[in-house]
Amino acid sequence: xxxxxxxxxxxxxxxxxxxxKNREKMLLASILxxxxxxxxxxxxxxxxxxILLDGFKRLRGARRLGMKTVPVISLGTDEAAAILRLIRxxxxxxxxxxxxxxxxxxxxxxxxxxIRDIAHRVERSPAWVSVRLxxxxxxxxxxxxxxxxxxxxxxxxxxxxxxxxxxxKIKRSEIDIFVKTVSGKGLSxxxxxxxAYAFFRGGAGLQAQMLRGNLNWTLKQLRRGGTLLCxxxxxxxxxxxxxxxDLELAQKYIGRVMxxxxxxxxxxxxxxxxxxxxxxxxxxxxxxxxxxxxxxxDQRGQEKNHPNAL
Length: 310
What we know:
alpha/beta
């Protein structure tokens, strides 16, 4: 371990790591009381520059407190090897799927590594690498900045905004407007979920209210009105409204489960036993569910095309 002057640290990879204002506040208090207990992880270059890969929150805290030096551990002189080592460590440490995506993209595009090579070196499957490859490239610059700055929650992006907008083929420009409208307002992920459906499917009236900044008013109206996709009561029965709500929830939780299984390190024996039983039951239900959806769509299509439909 070395004690390095802050001015010697290169932060070119800062954009690869997510910011979390609440965690940084707690970390700042910890550093003030106990100092930096966990060294920063860097690549050291021959000219004496230390390229930071892990520890950006600690570095920002040190700067805010006026510290001149920080403890650093070298991960070697090879950037690609150091990134691979950091991803491997994420099996046991917290490294978000979007951060992993940025690093995987760098390994493939920046260092010319293949998917199989990356998978082998990080001790993961090629499918694990493929899921992350290009994930952040789907994001516009507006969305990426909002998410990585901590102004827009990662969870809301991953299995609400990303899933919903991909299914509904919504334009990037509209997504950017929504993200700008709700970012940095201190909204919960639940509130952002509600507002996303309202903005993209709730009609021009709700969208206009949100663009004027009336987010709390919009949330109150939606909580009173039941389902998000059909806020008006005319022309739809209670049973139809409930079915739409159930389908909304199915879409949301499918995305959430896929996100959690891909992102988190889930290793306990009890977890695997329980999940194994659930997957056995769910697999059959999913096949029947998809078949039901297909039959419903086919029947609806036949009704529309029937000569007497009009």
